[in-house]
Amino acid sequence: MKTYHGSCHCQAIRFAAELDLAAGTMRCNCSFCRKIRCWATVVKPESFRLLAGEGDLAEYQFGAKHERHFFCKHCGVRPFGIARSPRRGLFYGVSVSCLDDAAITELANAPVTYVDGLNDNWDTPPADVGYL
Question: What backbone phi and psi angles, to 5 degrees, belong to 20?
Answer without folding.
Answer: -125, 100
